[in-house]
Amino acid sequence: MAKQEDIFKNVVSHAKEYGFIFPSSEVYDGLSAVYDYAQNGVELKKNIREYWWKSMVQMNENIVGLDAAILMHPTTWKASGHVDAFNDPLIDNKDSKKRYRADVLVEDHAEKINQKAQKEIEKARARFGDAFNEEEFVATNARVVEYLSKYKEILSRLAKGMTDDLQDVKALIEELEIADPETGSRNWTDVKQFNLMFGTKLGASADSAMDLYLRPETAQGIFVNFLNVQKSGRMKVPFGIAQTGKAFRNEIVARQFIFRMREFEQMEMQFFVRPGEEMKWYHHWKETRLNWHLSLGLGKENYRFHDHEKLAHYANAAADIEFNFPFGFKELEGIHSRTDFDLKAHEQYSGRKLQYFDPELNENYVPYVVETSVGLDRMFLAVFATSLQEETLEDGSTRTVLKLPSVLAPTKAAVLPLIKRDGLPEISKKIIDDLKWDFTVAYDEKDAVGRRYRRQDALGTPFCITVDHQTIEDQTVTIRHRDTMKQDRVKISELKDIIENEVSMKNWLMKM
Ligand code: GAP
Known about the structure:
Elements: H1 4-17, E1 21-23, E2 35-37, H2 39-58, E3 63-65, H3 75-79, H4 82-85, E4 87-92, E5 99-101, H5 102-128, H6 134-140, H7 142-164, H8 166-175, E6 192-195, E7 199-202, E8 210-213, H9 219-224, H10 226-232, E9 239-248, E10 263-273, H11 278-294, E11 303-307, E12 317-325, E13 328-337, H12 341-350, E14 356-358, E15 363-365, E16 368-375, H13 376-387, E17 388-392, E18 398-402, E19 413-417, H14 424-435, E20 441-443, H15 449-459, E21 463-467, H16 469-474, E22 476-481, E23 487-491, H17 495-503, H18 505-509
Parallel strand pairs: 3-9, 19-20, 19-21
Antiparallel strand pairs: 1-2, 4-5, 4-6, 7-8, 9-10, 10-16, 11-12, 12-13, 13-16, 14-15, 17-18, 21-22, 22-23
Bound molecules: glycyl-adenosine-5'-phosphate.
């Protein structure tokens, strides 16, 4: 089996080679943790966004959309707590001059210990087969007990240090003898807080220019528009406002490709509810969002919930949907019950009332909010990495195939004339002219048809339509299915329905 790192390297190089993702401004050697979406990537990303938008906005009559500006009044970020508390603990290595997130250094160290325990468990599973009782083994095997208790102890001391005193985190790093991952040096500075917001200026003259921030989340644009939307849309609580858009964070450790970027896109929804009803809605959205992910068919075993034990000051419940990325389970989406914290803070800082008059209760209140927040780029990585597969065929050859959920595939069908003459290209182009009203379709006449199939497999195209001499006689073509490689002879007039049936959002979302 390929090693995790190799799988991940393969994902990054496939994304570049096949026109999905390029490093930003690559001619200047790129910009750290900033990426550009190329011709196929932009289609895949757009399809993920639409799949989300359709399920959240179009399918829910009490959820509406919004597109707030990236630049917001700077007091927004004071009220939201980002100016004072949107920090990461950073530590510098005095020898290498490299900067790290102190908590990540400790977490990575703890994870190595956890991995030792998991290895013992897997070894025992292989040894005992069906008779293996994991629970009993974990509770009684001395080595596993020791590893897991050390792992938990480190994480709990880290959590305490992060809230009580950052110097305890530094002490933990020293006690665990954690070294600079790149150079091995243990010569560390103290741990300091580092604000993640990017600053910018509004206005031309140096004297009157106003300091602004590039938004670090899209959610605040929703909060400050809550009453505008409620009144102009005559919305009744409970209702939601959904938004997709760019967010910016000056991440200290920006790595793992598009998993952690400095400029990224979020898909967020704030659901405004009656105070006291938030837990009901929190559970509703946890379940609904997991079902949305599962509808894409990437495998139930690749998702898990991580319920937060330590909550942010504004939340009374929070969970992550974690996904099994090529580098392990990590956060993909957050579901947070944010109480009335944000609206109340904006009331306090703006001096305006942000309250809803509930006609059924005959009273005014500040609604509570349940938020769902998923990173579009992380979704892209989850879908792309899981879909990229290397298959060994019956004849012993291998093929690289990007088994994207067909609803998300950048190109739904490629039309291939068997040869470049005898009128076959003309028929192919006619087929494209007909299909392109409904689907993104491609034309390819270069190379032998087998090689063209492989290229479309690597691009994730669900269908290849081949036009040959029989087409001239009876208006039929072969349609090849990406995943099974099965080929059927069908009438040209049937193509639209065959493709539609396979790629329509309706059919996929109905699986929710
Ligand atoms: N409004 C809530 C909020 O922003 P968050 O957990 O900080 O919560 C939500 O971010 C989601 O945004 C994450 O689950 C992740 O998918 C995505 N995200 C956060 N930081 C990111 C980054 N630097 N690069 C890519 N995606 C990121």
